[in-house]
Structures are given as structure tokens and as C-alpha cells.
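Bumping with the actual sequence this time:
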Amino acid sequence: MSRPSKLRGLYAITDGQLLAGRFLAYVEAALDGGVTLLQYRDKSQDESRRLREASELLKLCERYKTQLIINDDAELAARLGVGAHLGQTDGSLSGARALLGHQAIVGATCHGRLELAEQAKADGASYVAFGRFFNSLTKPDAPAVPLQLLEQVRAKINLPIAVIGGITLDNAAPLIEHGADLLAVVNGLFGADSPAQVTRRARAFNDLLARS
């Protein structure tokens, strides 16, 4: 799967508990609203289910021309021919790059530290991710990151910047103004009452990015 020249837009991240009973319907609704990257995030050890769900997502992503990213599992990403996102304790980023090839999207969690982003770039990252910026249900114990860090990253590292952590339509604008390229959203997108509402939220996030 080829790497877009510029990664910018909505970065939807799945949550198995939040999407229980409506997984594919809500993901497709988000894709219909416009998603640049879709990350399959599942921390369980059920490898057969992970392969099945990721394969189903890949079919949807191909239909909507969206890039699929596998969280914390470069081997599954390689099996499906898609990209991967790695945290600081999820294996070697340079190893994932070697496994997936130079065209694959490989992202890196950098928390709130510029030096981690510099290392990620040296190791072949396609984008660097920072957060949390707001109170987050997905990462409640993560330390908060100041908005000013995004400006420092933008000045020093020529890579797309992803932001995560409690992002909603009400608080996303300052992140974009400070240099964010990818809005990584879980509850702010999928914590909705219907597929139609998910689609509306996705379009609204993209409108915020388009206006910047």
C-alpha cells in the first residue's frame, strides 16, 4: 500500500468495547464521512479474531480508499499489507519499517517528548503522534501534553503530526492551529447514538481541518 505524500485529516481509531455490537456499521459510517487513516486497535490476545476483524476493516478501507493502520502489531500489518503504529514498548520501529517496506505508513507514539519524535524520524517513521491533550477515556493516566509542544515539533521535524487524547469537535481547533495534521479520535467520533451521527461528526472534523 503506497504512502500518501501528505498525511492530513481525520485519524479514526477503533475501540472494541465502545463499538461492541456495531463495529463494522460505525466504522463504515466514519469512512463515509471521510477518514485519512483508520487504526485497528485491539489489545486482546485473540489472534484469530484480530485477523478476522482487521481483514474486514481492510475490505472497507479499500472500498473507501482509506489507509488501514494496525496498532502495535507489525506482523499482522505485514500479513495484510498495511501500515502499523507502534508505541514506545511495542517493538522496534526500524524493524517494523524493514518488515513492512519503505512505502508503508509507520507511525510512532512520542507522548510529549520532542526527542522521541526525533528518534522516530531517524528510525523511519511516517508520522509522529503526541498526546494526551485533554481528558481521555482511552488513556486516562497519560500525562497531559501542552499545545506549545506542537509548534516545537513543527519547527524541528518535517513529518506529519498526529494528536490524540480526548479530542472532540469542541476542542480540536486549537490543536490544528498549533500544527496538528492528523486528529486521532476514538470517543469523539464513535461515541455516538447512530451511524448517521458518526458520519456527521467525521465530516465536521474534516471541515475544521479544511478551514485551517
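The C-alpha cells above came from a reply further down the thread. Strands lie at 9-13, 37-40, 67-71, 83-86, 106-109, 127-130, 161-164, 182-185.
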